Every structure is written in C-alpha cells, then in structure tokens.
Amino acid sequence: MPKTVSSTEAQNNFGAVLQWAEKEKDEVIIERRGKPSAVVMPYTSYEQVLELRQQEKKRRALEALRALRKQVQAQTQALSAKEAYEIAGFGQEVVEETLKSDEALQNEA
User: Fold this and answer.
1) 6 three-state secondary structure
2) Which of 32, 48, 69, 98 could be joined to 37 by an S-S link, Cβ 3.0–4.6 Å?
3) What is this structure's pTM?
4) How far is CA 67 from CA 32, 38, 39, 62, 93, in A?
5) What fold characterizes domain 3-41?
6) CA 46 to mean position of chain CA atoms
7) Three-class SS of residue 16?
8) Where do the structural domains in the chain lie, given as residue ranges?
9) What is the SS3 assignment for 39?
10) Are 27 and 2 in contact (CB under 8 A)?
C-alpha cells in the first residue's frame, strides 16, 4: 500500500523516502497542503508506466488509421485496405503493420 508523506517530510527525509520506495517496491505519495502533489516510485514501476503510455499511443494511432481507412474506403469503394492506406500517405512499413494488426483483429472476432 502506498505511503503518504508531507512535502516537508519528504524534503527533510528524502533519502529515507527513496529507500522505502525501493525496499517496499511501492509508491510514496507526497502531499502539499494536504493534497497529493507528486509520487516517488521504484524505477521498475516507472518503466512499466512508460511502456503503458507507449502502448496507448500506438493504440490511438491505429484507431486513427482505421478511421481514416474507413473514410477513404467510403469515398472509393473499389479500393482495398492496402490501397486506402497507401493513398492516405502512409509508408510501406506502417501499411504492412496495420494490415497485419487488422487481420489479427478479424481472426479474434
């Protein structure tokens, strides 16, 4: 369970705060005027947060690509998904990755 300390306590005992976070593999919430202001966490937890952020960015980008593909396909019914992505200006690597992702999603359904 995360530990909560005041900003003054964190400032006066920063080494102990770091040590606790590392040892307990948990977060220390730092409050300023009684409200959460910052968090000290083990570096491995931070790496996980970064990975989740990156995955979310990729997910949003794929959603945008799919929406654009649908828009382009609606305007030009005769185009394949690959042609639609290419007309939209995406590079070959992105097109191939997106098509593979689309195929995997269709297989799941």
Assistant:
1) strand
2) 32
3) 0.58
4) 43, 37, 37, 9, 19
5) YefM-like fold (3.40.1620)
6) 12
7) helix
8) 3-41, 51-108
9) strand
10) yes
